[in-house]
Sequence to fold (104 residues):
Amino acid sequence: MNKIRRGDEVVVLTGKDKGKRGTVLSVLEGRLVVEGVNRVKRAVKPNPMRGTTGGFVDKDMPIDISNVAIFNRLSGKGDRVGIKTLEDGRKVRFYKSNGEVMDA
Fold:
């Protein structure tokens, strides 16, 4: 079970985008693509078959998973996540600071 999944809201802890919040768009091996974080400009060639024009495009690049923390809405800050098993055998994620279950 992954501690950070697609759709989670995360806070960037280090780097040029420190303090920014965004939603996880995809999870790669040890890296995340977060909406609006680690944005770069890429040159794109025009493709008349697809109908795309050339130029520069803003693109979100992957960021290391160790540089983000899940945003805890109750405290308003980034929080660490743990995994525990409930009595009925389900595995759920919980916030380490207050023990509240994320996946109910």
Notes: The radius of gyration is 17 Å.
